[in-house]
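Ops channel
N.P.: pipeline sanity check, posting one input/output pair.
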């Protein structure tokens, strides 16, 4: 006998052959890590540069905002503007402040007409004097006590200022003049040059550039022009990642940009390398996988196919494997299991059929014919006082008994069961006289339906039995109709009804498959319908205290034939 091959050894060899797969996965992971890390670093450096610049410029704005207010309210400044005396003290205050600042400035004190009274600039060209007069005129016209705005003004030695802080100088409620601080552009530029960032831009709320490290972003009228495309910023055909932040109190916006072209070259070279390596590895893996699958997975495929057939309901999905290894043993065990399963299913189905038939017959036999005793008592008196009535009672009772003990089938047409109910109610009406009335309203389609024999008896009995406990007169109605695939029959009475607590108790008895209470009528009917048609069918009861009770019977609609 040939020695069986050990499948464990086969798996080990297959694992060795597929050692290329983890290498390939490592390549992919390394590529993803490199790309993600490069992108993350670019984003982090750009945003960090923006935060650094925001912190520095925020301190600049705060310092000058406080200083211009402080300086304009100093007595020496007010005295100088009013009398032209005390200029050394004014300059001393200015230089003490200015020497501590990262962004230096020029100070001017002007009279109400915009004429320069004092200036820290050695020489101001005519254009700067005109710009200062325009600022004074604008503040005077609008009544602004404080002004902070971007403007590009040329001073001596080709030095430019880019931002102005201006404040009224008042004495006794009247305007004496104006104090201005104008911040140098070159100091702004030095402050926004930060490490790991290529381009930095500072603008006011109108997108006017205050300072930038690269003039390629300047547009017409010194406006910032940034073109966005696919989430990136495009400048002169170069793509940049951009970050934006702001200094709300200054209404300054700060943009930091870093080129992504170098990062794209890195991506491209990595992608090319890994694409070539991946193609080679994929080709090798496909060849190896084809070889391994043809040699080692034939038995697995057969087992999987058999299991899927079994899941689909094919109980004859036996599998035959002659591989000489552990899979042959597994297939034999599977076949043995399937044979035992088929045997158990056959036995279970037979037992289920026997149990269902026995339970249905048992439930059918439990209907209480207690009304017969009441009818016999009525018959005893009718024989004495009304022979015609006695004959009618005997005829109707004989029809009822003949129908109830008939063994011609467990289902009948609804019209036959309604005839039985009508006879039953006639007997009860002979007993209760005008205290009992009833109506039947069943449409023609429902009349032809097949229903379980004596289905309505227990419901009618309960309505009469409990309806008279609280009322002298009782009205019964039987309605039937077809709704979609189902037949619905509703029995209503106008008796005393039930309290909510009693209704919950009765519903519990109806739904309890192991009911041990003496009230078994509705429970038996519900169990009978569930056994015959399934869990979604049965009866439902509703009741309102003082108004009556309604029992709803729901079963599948099946049309009866002429031979029923």
């Amino acid at each position: 006998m040939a020695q069986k091959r050990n499948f464990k050894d086969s798996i080990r060899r297959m694992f060795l052959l597929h050692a290329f797969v983890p290498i390939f996965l490592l390549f992919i992971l390394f590529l993803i890590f490199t790309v993600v890390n490069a992108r993350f670093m670019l984003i982090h450096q750009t945003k960090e540069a923006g935060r650094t610049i925001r912190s520095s410029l925020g301190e600049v704005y705060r310092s000058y905002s406080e200083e211009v207010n402080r300086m304009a309210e100093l007595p020496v400044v007010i005295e100088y503007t009013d009398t032209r005396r005390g200029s050394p003290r004014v300059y001393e205050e200015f230089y003490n402040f200015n020497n501590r600042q990262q962004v230096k400035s020029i100070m001017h004190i002007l009279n109400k007409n915009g004429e320069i009274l004092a200036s820290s600039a050695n020489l101001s060209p005519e254009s700067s004097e005109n710009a200062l007069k325009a600022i004074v005129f604008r503040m005077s016209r609008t009544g602004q006590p404080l002004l902070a705005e971007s403007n590009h003004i040329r001073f001596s030695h080709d030095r430019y200022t880019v931002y102005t802080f201006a404040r009224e100088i008042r004495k006794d409620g009247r305007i004496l003049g104006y104090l201005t601080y104008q911040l140098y552009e070159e100091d702004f530029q030095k402050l926004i040059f930060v490490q790991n960032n290529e381009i930095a831009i500072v603008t006011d709320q109108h997108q006017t550039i205050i300072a930038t490290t690269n003039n390629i972003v300047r547009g017409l009228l010194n406006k910032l022009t940034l073109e966005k495309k696919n989430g990136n910023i495009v400048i002169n055909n170069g793509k940049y990642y951009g970050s934006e932040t702001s200094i709300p109190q200054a209404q300054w916006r700060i943009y930091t940009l870093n080129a992504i072209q170098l990062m794209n070259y890195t991506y491209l070279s990595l992608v090319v390398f890994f694409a070539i390596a991946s193609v080679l590895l994929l080709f090798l893996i496909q060849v190896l996988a084809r070889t391994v699958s043809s040699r080692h997975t034939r038995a697995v495929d057969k087992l999987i196919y058999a299991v899927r057939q079994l899941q689909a309901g094919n109980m004859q999905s036996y599998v035959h494997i002659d591989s000489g290894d552990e899979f042959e043993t597994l297939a034999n065990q599977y076949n043995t299991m399937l044979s035992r399963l088929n045997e158990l299913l056959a036995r279970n189905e037979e037992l289920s059929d026997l149990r269902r038939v026995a339970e249905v017959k048992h439930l059918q036999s439990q209907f209480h014919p207690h009304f017969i005793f009441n009818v016999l008592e009525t018959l005893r008196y009718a024989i004495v006082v009304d022979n015609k009535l006695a004959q009618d009672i005997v005829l109707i009772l004989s029809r009822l008994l003949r129908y109830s003990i008939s063994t011609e089938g467990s289902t009948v047409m609804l019209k036959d069961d309604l005839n039985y109910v009508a006879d039953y109610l006639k007997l009860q009406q002979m007993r209760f006289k005008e205290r009992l009335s009833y109506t039947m309203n069943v449409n023609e389609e429902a009349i032809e339906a097949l229903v379980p024999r004596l289905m309505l008896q227990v419901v009618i009995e309960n309505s009469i039995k409990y309806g008279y406990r609280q009322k002298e007169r009782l009205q019964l109605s039987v309605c039937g109709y077809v709704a979609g695939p189902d037949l619905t029959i509703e029995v209503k009475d106008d008796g005393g009804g039930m309290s909510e607590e009693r209704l919950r108790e009765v519903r519990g008895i109806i739904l309890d498959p192991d009911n041990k209470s003496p009230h078994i009528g509705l429970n038996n009917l519900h169990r009978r319908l569930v056994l015959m048609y399934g869990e979604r069918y049965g009866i439902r009861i509703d009741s309102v205290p003082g108004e009556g009770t309604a029992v709803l019977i729901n079963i599948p609609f099946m049309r009866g034939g002429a031979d029923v």
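N.P.: looks fine end to end. The first strand starts at residue 105 and ends at 111.
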